[in-house]
Design a protein that fits this description.
The structure is a homodimer. Chain A contains 13 helices and 12 strands. Chain A has about 350 residues and is α/β, with parallel strands linked by helices. The structure holds a DNA duplex (30 and 30 nucleotides).
DNA sequence: CACTCACATGGATACGTTTTCATGCATCTC
DNA sequence: GAGATGCATGAAAACGTATCCATGTGAGTG
């Protein structure tokens, strides 16, 4: 009953050849047609499946790809993970998953575990900065960042980088000149074009007459915040820029606090879907009507954005594509390391924004 | 720069001991205090991390745990995955993830990959039946099912238990008398008490005067459907029981078709959060007001249920706990295999149900 | 002191694979 | 026909670890 799996040795014996030959046949090496056929037949008959364990040890790498996200409960990261999985599956690579909770410490721990596991390629939505990712790179890991860049010098390093070319077609309202040309990121990454997304949203709100626009940020939203500051200011009313940690409670507290401390604000830009959720909840709790009393734009297009009433106007970023492209990047060993990829965002106007009251 | 990692041999040499001793010290075997201290110091200094590759090969198992879910975009499975990850992390075990898309074929393929990878313990929200899971078990895998049971004889195995029970005492919310004890499943699994959840919801709707209640089911909802049939019938109006596949499009089509073909229905029970979403959307599209024209109860309490207007009345099942318990089960090798665990569900009344129009 | 017992220790082996290397055979070239 | 060339092939080494087993050392017991 406890049938042990057949090894390459069993196949070799049964086929009357050496193990080297079996290995070659199965890895596509050269072999005579006759031998190949025989080996294949025997392997199929024994239901032989090469053990990744042996192979991994031999070539000193697991081959799998690691995936680190802050929280799978966040629909966006679910989408991203699905993208990674889709690409990995088509490449036949296993994916080992970790959830960091947006905690650099947990993140570092998980990276350590992956290292130990022999995983040498990973995709990460980083929480920590150089403290975590320097060592990882030094250990020989190929890491592709998704959705964000590690904190350290990310802000000034990347917020200057708009899309390669296409911000022009999104100039909805006024004719503000497109941002300066993109400075390519220093690290391989797949990002959404936060900057254009935020700019477009801010312009849209401005066009509706809003002047006191708040930003609700969460961990890893540095680029979005920077883009927001750039788009609205200067001067930037700093009280209108508030932050939450990764939890839902914190997001709600931040949103609620914002509404209460600044009843004069007329629009809110939520930096992520959890924050958008919190904003809707907090507004309802305080009897603020959307969009009559306050307009709301949320980053991330999630399925439930349409369920709200009114349906939420969102900045959509292609979560699944981001994951898929990141996986492609990390799997592409041929040629030199590719640089950052920036995917377009899109403002989807639904019903949560109205003219300034 | 490309510093190769230190091996156990390096540590042994540097510490002036044999590799066996190092191995023992690190795995908690016996060693003299002096030696132990010395080895530990050297290991720390060399930043030695034992390679899981070598260990795995030696003991012929990866140690990690596999996790198979239908779709990470579904918030419920995200919660479940978070639970699994939390438990796995505290046990120091890596988790390798696969998304099946509710397709038995993909599922079987993923199981094969895990097998190959040396993963011998897994948690699955199964799509396929015995065709997939028989071989997996025969290959020596320890598998714990979560949220569902494999199709084969799950339906009659689990829903058949117990008499319909006197529906006379309509203690609506928390006072519902516990159903007859569930007959333990034949396989290790962690499930929500679907039966009670559905019964409670149906009674609640009945109490509001609803008589034509529809059920919107998706893949893997067999137990819920059976519970629904049991709770409403007989006779069961079969036109009021409709099914969708796993996709959002299919869910919407099913919901929309249901509303159009049976305009006389007054309440809908959605078997999952995707179906609930579809129901809300379809109702809105057809200008049906919730709850005035149609009452709605959704399985799964997801954060956005509260965002809808009106907020959705739901049957909450503890997704995170289900994942966590499943991971505990699959990690507990001590003692004999534990049986099925059934976690309670809870009807959370919000605003999506009203008296029959 | 002889003997035993417990225990710390290191050498050797096995895990299943890939890859290198040498061998043998057949074919080709001059 | 002799040498060179090409190719299929198998033996063996390596990957990093855990564990079996034999050895050595100390203490404890008679």
């Amino acid at each position: 009953m406890e049938a042990k799996r057949a090894t390459i040795k069993d196949v070799a014996e049964a086929a009357g050849v050496g193990v080297a030959t079996v290995s070659r046949v199965l890895s596509g090496g050269s072999a005579s047609p006759h031998t190949r056929e025989r080996v294949l037949a025997v392997a199929a008959q024994l239901d032989y499946r090469p053990s990744a364990l042996g192979r991994n040890l031999r070539q000193r790498r697991t081959g799998g790809i690691g995936l680190l996200v802050p929280d799978l409960t966040d629909t966006f990261f679910g989408q991203l993970a699905e993208g990674v999985l889709a690409c990995a599956r088509s490449a036949g690579e296993p994916v080992v998953l970790g959830s960091t909770g947006d905690d650099p410490e947990q993140e570092a721990e998980l990276v350590g575990m992956l290292l130990e596991q022999g995983v040498d390629r990973m995709i990460a939505v980083p929480s920590g900065g150089a403290d975590t990712w320097g060592p990882a790179a030094r250990a020989g890991m190929t890491v592709v960042f998704a959705d964000r860049l590690p904190a350290e010098r990310a802000a000034d390093g990347l917020t200057g980088g708009g899309p390669p070319g296409g911000a022009g077609d999104l100039m909805l309202l006024d004719g503000v000149p497109p941002p300066p040309p993109a400075r390519p990121a220093e690290v391989p990454a797949v990002l959404a074009d936060d900057r254009t997304g935020i700019r477009t949203a801010v312009r849209y709100l401005r066009g509706l007459g809003h002047r006191r626009i708040a930003f609700l940020g969460g961990p890893g939203h540095d680029r979005r915040v920077a883009a927001f500051r750039e788009a609205v200011g200067p001067p930037v009313d700093e009280d209108l820029v508030v932050f939450a940690t990764g939890s839902r409670d914190s997001a709600y507290a931040a949103a609620s606090g914002l509404f209460q401390s600044r009843p004069d604000l007329t629009a809110v830009l939520a930096g992520g879907n959890m924050l958008g959720e919190a904003a809707v909840l907090a507004a309802r709790e305080l009897d603020l009507r959307v969009p009559r009393d306050v307009s709301l734009v949320m980053y991330d297009d999630v399925p439930w954005a349409e369920l709200c009433s009114p349906p939420l106007t969102v900045i959509a970023q292609p979560g699944r594509d981001i994951g898929y492209r990141a996986a492609e990047l990390v799997l592409r060993t041929s040629g030199r390391r590719p640089r950052a990829v920036v995917l377009p965002t899109e403002l989807i106007v639904r019903g949560s924004c109205g003219p300034r009251r």
